[in-house]
Amino acid sequence: MLRADINICLEIVGPLLTKSTAPGEYGLDAVVARNSDGVPYIPGTLVTGKVRESLEQLSECSAGVDWFDPDSPGWLGAKSSRGVPQSKRLLFSDFLLSCEAGNGVRTRIRIDPERGAAVKGAQLLVDAPFGIRAPLYFTGRLTLFVQDDETLQSMQRHVEAALKWITQLGGYRTIGYGRLQKVNMGKPMQCVISSPRYCSQTAGFLDVLIRPEAPFCIARKPKTDNNLFESDAIIPGAALLGAISTTWKELTGGSSCTSVADIRDDERTDLRESFNHIRITHALPSADSLVRPVFPPLSLVKVDAKGCNPYYDVARLPGPCLIHGQAPAFAVDWKNSDDVEKDFGWPGLRRELRVRTAIDRKTLRSKEAELFAYEMIVPDKNDWHARIDFDDTKIRNPAAVGAQLASLIEHGIAGLGKTKTPADVRILPAGSVNPALVSDPEPRDGCWIITLQTPAILCDPESLVNSRSRDNTLAAYQQVWHELSKGSLQLIRHFSRQSLVGGNYLFNRFQKGRDDNDTVKSYSPWLLTDAGSVFVFRAIDGKETEAVNRVRQWLAHGLDLPSWTVAHYTRKMENGEILPGDHWRNCPYIRQNGYGEIVVNLEVHWSHCPGEDELENIDWIGEEEEQ
């Protein structure tokens, strides 16, 4: 099993125009695409599309050629019968210009087909950094995860033939732009995946450092039903588990496997049996290689007054009040949160917008109504940190599982996010990465203040249908936290925000089917409590020790799903198998996928709590809270 990187150089005869979606200098109608560093590039998606087109054309005229038998859908991705897209195996990076670019502008004019004369007002100004007949060299990389050398050589031969079949890249093909003159493919640089070795970790977890090799898009929930996919800065644990399983399938030649249980790998039987019980936290970005940021609590507020702090924390205040004579503004009303995020360890990340479209195979032009855009995260020198947790009673041999997983991912993972970006992975000893703010599971001033770091399923939506009042919401949260804490904690107050998550894709993948009563399941979005939500607790009398133990358990391993989810999301599969609602195939928002992560008793709750001299309307000061 191996990973292979193949360097490719495309020699193109100028001029060339791969259109940018970002505006250029004033007055230009068509701008050459440049990446976030200002370097002209040919998108890897364009090369992928041209390779797909070449393979299909060559397949039609290569009858009788023994060695030419491409698996285009398997190599370049396709939609499954359920409408769920399949991952591609040929991962092309962007091709960057490796020679100097100049400056210039060319003009074009549209011709009226009936009169044969110029159309009035139809002049175009085109960005022209490349000279006519100038040799242009664009270098990129093809990444493959394959089972053996024979498969690698076969895929390389097919890709090289497809690239050499391409005659033109970019726009204005009918007037000679972007003529591909030569393709140079280097030798594969192989990174052999080693056999499983003994894992000396005894802590039950591993820290991992993830470095995406190119801009990526982890699409967050769209604000409206549009064609813009905005990337989240956080890489969910579910996305990491999916990328790991995809990589594993490719390395074992089992890309057609529907689940990890179907993978044939005699060297990783422990990992295969325990894969669904491994927990991977969300990977959070950081400019410091050994510090993981913390999500700011929703109990933070700002006040626009001279001489006050940049922000305050009101989690410990029993009721509403004025601060410096003003009503405090919560995060939902902030215009800018950069100052707060910086204090909690979050780096400033650059973003890059790319607009794409499907191409009509017959006309070789853009299809109508097929435009979409990605707002991607540019990795720069930032790292993403996550933790892999093996401390589960259903994992019989954690040391072996840890060793086998480390040997699988130590040379990277494939297919991260919507852009299918490869990523480097470094295995670090347990405890190498620490949070930007430290948690304290022991009670402080007789209370615990828990802040969600990732979304979590808590309240039953049915309990909030009839009333969305403050008291009803508090009662719903009190009920679920009473269950999760096994009756050891009482919720006093909360600062929370909820979101509904769903849509056609998630319904078809996780909900479509029948329940255990053989009734067709109806569409039901998930109700998530958002990251940053704050919950303040006190221990039930006589259960202080049990409360500390529960908080420690949550801090180390995340929150379990409430009991109502097991029945609510139970689904009967097509093969007749009935899976409980807390199975990952029915509910993706489980702790194994990184959801329900918490921090406890952050210092900010005390250090930024407003003093009595800063408060007004404080009749509740000194009053005892209801127990």
Q: Mind explaining what this structure looks like?
A:
By secondary structure, the protein is α+β, with helices and mostly antiparallel strands. The protein has three domains: 2-192, no CATH class; 205-293 and 348-432, Alpha-Beta Plaits, CATH 3.30.70; 439-601, no CATH class. Helices cover 20% and strands 26% of the residues. The protein contains twelve helices and 33 strands. Strands 1, 2, 3, 4, 7, 8 and 9 form a seven-stranded antiparallel sheet that branches. α1 crosses α3. The longest helix is centred in the first third of the chain and has 17 residues, at 44-60. The radius of gyration is 28 Å and the shape is globular. It starts with a strand and ends in an 11-residue tail after the last strand. Residues 195-199 and 622-627 have low confidence and may be disordered.
Portion of residues within helices: 10-25%
Tell me the span between the first and last alpha carbons.
Answer: 60 Å
Shape: globular
Number of strands: 33
Characterize the main sheet: 7 strands, antiparallel
